[in-house]
Design a protein that fits this description.
Blueprint (H helix, E strand, L loop, with lengths): L1 H25 L5 H11 L19 H13 L5 H12 L3 H12 L14 H9 L10 H4 L17 H12 L8 H8 L4 H12 L2
Bound molecules: heme C (2 copies).
Length: 206
């Protein structure tokens, strides 16, 4: 009987510990920095569409996320919402915390498309072909066919339209001055507000 009891408790503990491991695998938790800080505005998985001016980070390129946090830290990304919201956060992060947050958000399922409030033909055309007469390069040549993002090129698909439009304006006004922003400035400087709005609407619907 004693033997049977110990066998039973042994089996029970194996079952329990594998159940615990399984639960851990299914419900992988965010690194402490995301859990304690980033989640407040970006949500834990980075795909909360509630606040239009807060970018969705789910599925974003990890390289790009790291670069941007460093740009908030060194002050080269200096548009007003960056100064208000991201500068104070970025000052206190270690290189390890930045990397962990970047890898976490990059590995989350991409955000759901946001249904557009009108036709997206003009936006699609700008994205795919650029605007020849205004000297605007086709966005697709850098951001890719699905705007999914890779390396220094950010994911744009499923981003909130309000955030995308704001960033295009910040490039044009040259207040966003991190290293790779130089690549976007000549693009944005030749777009009108209406064209920016059209392409932002198209991208968020992807
Ligand atoms: C208090 C709110 C707040 C918190 C907390 C916060 N963010 Fe942000 N974050 C923002 C806002 C607002 C923006 C948009 C800034 C802009 O428009 O320039 C932003 C922008 C970003 C961007 C740029 C994304 C892009 O597409 O260019 C990254 C990357 C980022 N945050 C990462 C983080 C990480 C990592 C943390 C946690 C360590 C964090 N944020 C915490 C509000 C916050
Ligand atoms: C020559 C390459 C290139 C072309 C063409 C290009 N982009 Fe970009 N784009 C970039 C790079 C690189 C960045 C990252 C800039 C940075 O790190 O500040 C970027 C950033 C952006 C961002 C900011 C995203 C964020 O999360 O903050 C938006 C919006 C954007 N591009 C839209 C467009 C649109 C719309 C077009 C076409 C009209 C376009 N881009 C054409 C290279 C390009």
């Amino acid at each position: 009987m004693k033997h049977a009891t110990s066998l039973f408790s042994c089996l029970l503990s194996i079952t329990l510990s594998s159940a615990a491991l399984q639960a851990q695998a299914d419900d992988k938790t965010a690194p402490p920095i995301v859990h304690s800080t980033c989640f407040m505005c970006h949500s834990e998985r980075g795909n909360d569409p509630d606040l239009g001016f807060v970018p969705r980070l789910a599925g974003q390129s990890a390289t790009y996320i790291e670069e941007q946090v460093n740009a908030f830290r060194d002050g080269s990304r200096a548009e007003p919402p960056a100064i208000i919201y991201m500068w104070p956060v970025a000052q206190n992060l270690s290189a390890d915390q930045i990397k962990q947050a970047a890898e976490w958000y990059a590995s989350q399922p991409a955000p759901q498309p946001i249904p557009p409030d009108g036709p997206v033909d003009e936006g699609r055309s700008i994205y795919m072909n650029g605007i020849l007469s205004a000297g605007v390069a086709a966005c697709v040549s850098c951001h890719g066919a699905k705007a999914a993002g890779t390396g220094i090129f950010p994911r744009l698909a499923g981003q909130t339209p309000q955030y995308l439009l704001a960033q295009l304006r910040y490039f044009r006004a040259a207040v966003r001055n991190d290293t790779s922003a130089e690549i976007m400035k000549p693009v944005a400087q030749h777009l009108t507000d209406e064209q920016m709005d059209a392409v932002a609407k198209y991208l968020s619907s992807l």
